[in-house]
Amino acid sequence: MGYDIDRFVGYVNEGLLCSICRDVLEDPLQAPCEHAFCTACIHGWLVHHSNCPEDRQMIDVSLLRPLYRYMKNDLNRLQLHCKNREYGCEMVCSLESIDRHERECEYSQIPCSNAGCTVQIERRNLDGHLAVCEYRSRECPNGCGYTILSAEDTQHNCVAELRTELELLRSEMICRVEEAKHEMESRLDSQRRHMVQKESILQNEIEELKSQMSRMMSDVRSLMAAERQHRQELEQAELEKREL
């Protein structure tokens, strides 16, 4: 939708009006037939139609282009009242700068920043409202350090709040201790499994060494027996040599 034409000061050229809503162009686009539209208006129109609403020529979203520069300049120079005129704002500025002004306008209706408060109030009166808002928060005046809402003043009990806070801290501490305990148990189990695995590997290596040693002892005994046999054969040969 465009800008309400009643907000503008002086004459507004017909060419600067949206061909659909007939208000002053907002975020304008232009068709090949040179008819101009608000972006929101023409996009909504093309959902159900495929032609220009003025001359019925066929158009497509891809054919829409920004407004000619000279028309854009004429549009930006138009003077209009702030949308908060009904609340007392008397500002009149160019269309080019109206958005910036309205974002900062002291007469704009804005929501209270306190959680839970649904009041809409003029920006210029916000500080005064925050000072008395029933949803404003502050620290307990009795020194317990608890943050309370003004609406809870009569129900606030320092001892009860501190007891609740203590219970929460105790519960949190118990949870953390349990988490640390589970983590340590998990680490110990992991280390225990690693040690058992390592022990099994070492035991296998010891058994293999024992097996190798047994084979070596057997080989040594065989060599010693062969050496005795060889010595006996030499002695026998020596005897036979002497007899000859």
In short:
GO terms for molecular function: ligase activity; zinc ion binding. This protein is mainly alpha-helical and 244 residues long.
Description:
With 244 residues, the protein is mostly helical. Among the domains are: 3-102, Zinc/RING finger domain, C3HC4 (zinc finger) (Herpes Virus-1, 2-Layer Sandwich); 107-147, Herpes Virus-1 (2-Layer Sandwich), CATH 3.30.40. Helices cover 50% and strands 11% of the residues. Strand 1 (28-30) and strand 2 form a beta hairpin. The longest helix is centred in the last third of the chain and has 86 residues, at 158-243. The protein is elongated. The protein starts with 27 loop residues before the first strand and ends with a helix. This is RNF41 ligase.
* Overall CATH architecture of the domain at 3-102: 2-Layer Sandwich
Number of strands: 9
Estimated radius of gyration:
48 Å
Task: Using the coordinates above, name the CATH class of the domain at 3-102.
Answer: Alpha Beta
N-to-C terminal Cα separation, in Å? 139 Å
Q: Estimate the strand proportion.
A: 5-15%
- Under CATH, the topology of the domain at 3-102 can be stated as Herpes Virus-1
Strand order of the largest sheet: 2-1-3
Multimeric status of the protein? single chain
Low-confidence stretches are: none
- CATH H level of the domain at 3-102: which superfamily? Zinc/RING finger domain, C3HC4 (zinc finger)
Largest sheet: 3 strands, antiparallel
Please tell me what the overall shape is. elongated
Q: Enumerate how many helices there are, as a single number.
A: 5
Helix amount: 40-55%
- Give the topology string: H per helix, E per strand: EEHEHEEHEEHEEH
Which class of secondary structure composition applies to the elements? mainly alpha
Q: How much is the average pLDDT?
A: 87
